[in-house]
Hints:
Elements: E1 3-5, E2 14-20, E3 23-29, E4 35-37, H1 39-46, E5 55-60, E6 69-75, E7 80-81, H2 85-96, E8 103-107, E9 113-117, E10 123-126, E11 158-162, E12 166-171, H3 180-188, E13 198-206, E14 209-216, E15 220-222, H4 226-238, E16 245-250, E17 253-259, E18 265-269, E19 272-278
Parallel strand pairs: 1-4, 3-5, 6-8, 12-13, 14-16
Antiparallel strand pairs: 2-3, 2-19, 5-6, 6-7, 8-9, 9-10, 10-18, 11-12, 13-14, 14-15, 16-17, 17-18
Amino acid sequence: xxxxxxxxxxAFRTVTKMNGIGNAIVILDxxxxxxxxxxxxxxxxxxxxxxxxxxxxxxxxxxxTGTDAFLRIYNIDGSQAGACGNGTRCVAWFLxxxxxxxxxxxxxxxxxxxxxxxxxxxxSVDMGxxxxxxDAIPLANADVDPRALDFGPGLPxxxxxxxxxxxxxxxxxxxxxxxxxxxxxxxxTAPIFPDRxxxxxxxxxxxxxxxxxxxxxxxxxxxACGSAACATLVAAAETGRVGRAATIELPGGRxxxxxxxxxxxxxxxxxxxxxxxxxxxxxxxxxxx
Length: 289
């Protein structure tokens, strides 16, 4: 049985601060316990400037034989995310840093994630299958076309799909003309998205390259979002804009995304270790559950 853990019980735990092409990540290893974080514990960590993150990756004991950990992913507001590709690469680095192995298998609430360390130091993650069914994304009802969501004048139709979490991708001619801070929050919380959505604006530069800006559900404007890069490649390939592989250019850097023959989406990119820190009890004053 798991225990919902208050913020105060995390005092003196060690966390690892990393980033995946600018996507701010903190890793908390709870594989030695049955703790599950309550939202205020997540927000307490996120509120500290030195530990500020976009996603908190929490490792738990594996549920199944043959996997390395069960992974829960939290946004800065304490909500849970179904996927975080950049964070998953960081977790793979964390688990493999002192190992002779080159691969790990992680469990999540939505899909298993196989991760590999490449010879050049980058990491690849099998992000699983994209899903287009309205109830798998999810959308609020079945009376819309997920491949052509209409949000009114001024915006092109969006392509909605799930990569473990909900995404909406808008293809535009000029990415610089998009005011992400203005439109992102409204689209994230549009009624058609009962669980909110990650909002991406994409400009296809050529058959091999896409530029991308992302408003991330629960986190806001981000330098990088791995699952959004995957969703964008799939949406672009489905509509004939690119082939089955492309470089996705985000403000924080580049990801290589491919959609292989068994329809799994593979994301490859670098990770950066920043530092480790100990959670100070003062972080959690007046925040205990």
